[in-house]
From TrEMBL:
PANTHER family to which the protein is assigned, alphabetical: SEC14 RELATED PROTEIN (PTHR23324), SEC14-LIKE PROTEIN 1 (PTHR23324:SF51)
Signal sequence extent: none
UniProt name for this protein: SEC14-like protein 1 isoform X2
Biological source species: Odocoileus virginianus (White-tailed deer)
UniProt lineage: Eukaryota, Metazoa, Chordata, Craniata, Vertebrata
InterPro entries: CRAL-TRIO_dom (IPR001251), CRAL-TRIO_dom_sf (IPR036865), CRAL/TRIO_N_dom (IPR011074), CRAL/TRIO_N_dom_sf (IPR036273), GOLD_dom (IPR009038), GOLD_dom_sf (IPR036598), PRELI/MSF1_dom (IPR006797), SEC14/CRAL-TRIO_domain (IPR051064)
Domain CRAL-TRIO intervals: 319-495
UniProt domain GOLD: residue ranges: 521-674
Length: 715
């Protein structure tokens, strides 16, 4: 298996030329890297104007490996070839390295780049990538891989320290400025010697403006001169090391690499809004930074978020009054670590009454809205406390818990909620404090604990009776000033007290089912029915050419053909459910036809995209850049399976199918948006807009056993 590494962008708040002067001091050997024994120059080239300097070195390394392994391999040292290409005109240094020793058994490649910061020419960016592929190594492949990764990561950590060490060394020698390269014709007396023309520069590394990263913001560091700090960022929306440390926490080099690679994969293959870095990191942590497992679970979660419109739940869904009155839970300040604190008085809550009055779906939606609010509060607290906060603390008071809480439908609803939250909000629970656990609690714990992840269970702290008031209790995690009054604290807690839900509010099973359907239809997606001979069409008027029409739809039933047409004149007002001889109504969705039967293709309207056949269960996202103003028609048309080519006679199955109205009906759920070309972010091969609310739809979205990947139209 090939191991890959991709670093974040490290920003040095020093000019490129000064960084190069510090970098060159690493050769021929570097005492800060004990394994780097020596290096010899093999080839060297310098252009006539001095702008390009290419040097190739043979580096001798003393790998920290067991003596037995070295004896079996028959070597004491490992040799690498390193090629440095310095372009002083463009102010870039590209470093390429590969192993010479055991090159037929082990393939190691590394590429590093120093370049000028895109927004501040007096700063320097650095990033590196590497790959390791062990073909065979005397049966010690796994051992060699571990040794190689350990050595490499330790050197990565030292890389920044080494540059800063030599920068300080230069400063002690009075060298704080290196002139830029200029063409000889402009300055024939140009020398490459170093000079002292500027005051000493700060050796600190700036924290880039996180407004370029997921909309976060912070106060920039002040410069030595007191001048306003320039905006910092990284090229191509890449992650930089200081941003990671400030907003995501301390990560090892390999953890940083996993985050960057997974994020890069989303940028390259994603057809929607890129998830926030904190969101990606949570899934990586939940899977111990196994990138393939994290990618799979995250894509499944993003698909789920789209299907249930979770991204919009805080803006579009309001909890019923019954929940506001009888759900005994709410947010209450924060704990000592700055995590948002959620208080749940489970013992005072009538779970049976809530399920009977609302149903599972409404309860689940309410819990989802609580989790979405928790994510929002984590972002706010990250800004307030100046350190990464990615999880919250939950305080559960079980006083009053009894056998009525073990009502089977209520426990079933609880288990479902736990399952959904575990799958879609990993690593969001920082600590769970369970207080005043009664004797019946072990029964409930036995029922729910198998559904809780092992990592999550380790965050549980359970206190019986008044144990929470003693040493190691609540005061270790929550400031005394904010302990709720019902726990003998001083702070008034606005969490509802719960109580029994009046039976007059109970709903029948049919009413709850209809309510669930209503909740589902509260979405930005529209539903449409497509019949044989009666396509569904929508009209989009374009005023400015070069606008971008984007679409996102799911084929819920049947197969359809998707078309896009353009017309200079507006169609007549739509005729709803105009189904001709079929005379079929469509309660499950609209059916609108815009193209008049007398219109002729090529004369009255034209096709601007090739037809796309979409199978049942597929999800399709795409975009079209308009060339002309006018009226664009998006059409979903019934797709008939072609008859057997071997005979002109219809098959029995075809005749039987033609007699069934249901076989002539398809259903789609769609969403469209028109975006100005200047707002359309990314290439034309992705449905990605800085103003759009599209969510990820992974290749695993399809429900059809014959379709294993989501389709995408894009031009």
């Amino acid at each position: 298996m090939v191991q890959k590494y991709q670093s974040p962008v490290r920003v040095y708040k020093h000019p490129f030329e000064l960084i190069m002067a510090a970098y060159e001091r690493r050769f021929p050997t570097c005492p800060l890297i004990p394994m780097f024994v020596d290096s010899d120059t093999v080839n060297e080239f310098r252009s006539e104007d001095g702008a390009v300097h290419v040097i190739e070195r043979r580096c001798k390394l003393d790998i920290d490996a067991p003596r037995l392994l070295k004896k079996i391999a028959g070597v004491d040292y490992v040799y690498f070839i390193q090629k440095n290409s310095l372009n002083s005109r463009e102010r870039t240094l590209h470093i390429e390295a590969h192993n010479e020793t055991f090159s037929n058994r082990v393939i190691i490649n590394e590429h590093c780049c120093y370049s000028v910061h895109p927004e501040n020419e007096d700063w320097t960016c650095f990033e590196q990538s590497a790959s390791l592929d062990i073909k065979s190594f005397f049966g010690f492949e796994s051992t060699v891989e571990k040794i190689a990764m350990k050595q490499y990561t330790s050197n990565i950590k030292k890389g920044k320290e080494i540059i800063e060490y030599y920068l300080r060394q230069l400063e002690e020698e009075g060298i704080t400025f290196v002139p830029r390269w200029t063409p000889p014709a402009t300055d024939p007396s140009l020398e490459t010697s170093l000079s002292c023309k500027k005051p000493a520069a700060s050796l600190t590394v700036v924290v880039p403006d996180p407004a370029l990263k997921e909309g976060l913001s912070s106060e920039p560091l002040s410069t030595p001169s007191g001048a306003p700090e320039p905006t910092a960022g990284t090229p191509d929306d890449k992650l930089d090391a200081d941003y990671i440390k400030r907003y995501l926490g301390d990560l090892t080099p390999l953890q940083e690499s996993c985050l960057i690679r997974l994020r890069q994969w989303l940028q390259e293959t994603h057809k929607g809004k890129i998830p926030k870095d904190e969101h990606i990191l949570r899934f990586l942590r939940a899977r111990d930074f196994h990138i393939d497992k994290a990618r799979e679970t995250m894509c499944q979660s993003l698909t789920w978020r789209k299907q249930h419109q979770v991204d919009y739940i805080l803006d579009t869904w309001r909890p019923p009054q019954v929940l506001q009155d009888y759900y005994a839970g709410g947010w209450h300040h924060h704990d000592k670590d700055g995590r948002p604190l959620y208080v749940l008085r489970l013992g005072q809550m009538d779970t049976k009454g809530l399920v009977r009055a609302l149903g599972e779906e409404a309860l689940l939606r309410y819990v989802l809205s609580i989790n979405e609010e928790g994510l929002r509060r984590c972002e706010e607290n990250t800004k307030v406390f100046g350190r990464p906060i990615s999880s919250w603390t939950c305080l559960v008071d079980l006083e009053g818990l009894n056998m009525r809480h073990l009502w089977r439908p209520g426990v079933k609803a609880l288990l479902r909620i736990i399952e959904v939250v575990e799958a879609n909000y990993p690593e969001t629970l920082g600590r769970l404090l369970i207080l005043r656990a009664p004797r019946v609690f072990p029964v409930l714990w036995t029922l729910v604990s198998p559904f809780i992840d092992d990592n999550t269970r380790r965050k549980f702290l359970i206190y019986a009776g008044n144990d929470y008031q003693g040493p190691g209790g609540l005061l270790d995690y929550i400031d005394k000033e904010i302990i709720p009054d019902f726990l003998s604290g001083e702070c008034m807690c606005e969490v509802p007290e719960g109580g029994l839900v009046p039976k007059a509010l109970y709903r029948t099973a049919e009413e709850l089912e209809n309510e669930d359907l209503k909740l589902w239809t509260e979405t930005i997606y529209q539903s449409a029915s497509v019949f044989k001979g009666a396509p569904h069409e929508i009209l989009i008027q374009i005023v400015d050419a070069s606008s971008v029409i984007t679409w996102d739809f799911d084929v819920c039933k049947g197969d359809v053909v998707f078309n896009i047409y353009h017309s200079k004149r507006s169609p007549q007002p739509p005729k709803k459910d105009s189904l001709g001889a079929h005379s079929i109504t469509s309660p499950g969705g609209n059916n609108v036809q815009l193209i008049d039967r007398v219109w002729q293709l090529g004369r009255d309207y034209s096709m601007v995209e090739s037809p796309l056949i979409c199978k049942e269960g597929e999800s399709v996202q795409g975009s079209h850049v308009t060339r002309w103003p006018g009226f664009y028609i998006l059409q979903w048309k019934f797709h008939s399976t072609p008859a057997c080519a071997a005979t002109s006679l219809p098959r029995v199955d075809d005749v039987l199918a033609s007699l069934q109205v249901s076989s002539h009906k398809c259903k789609v759920m769609y969403y469209t948006e028109v975006i100005g070309s200047e707002d359309f972010r990314g290439s034309m091969t992705s449905l990605e807009s800085s103003h759009s609310g599209f969510s990820q739809l992974s290749a695993a979205t399809t429900s059809s056993s014959q379709s294993h990947s989501s389709s995408m139209i894009s031009r």
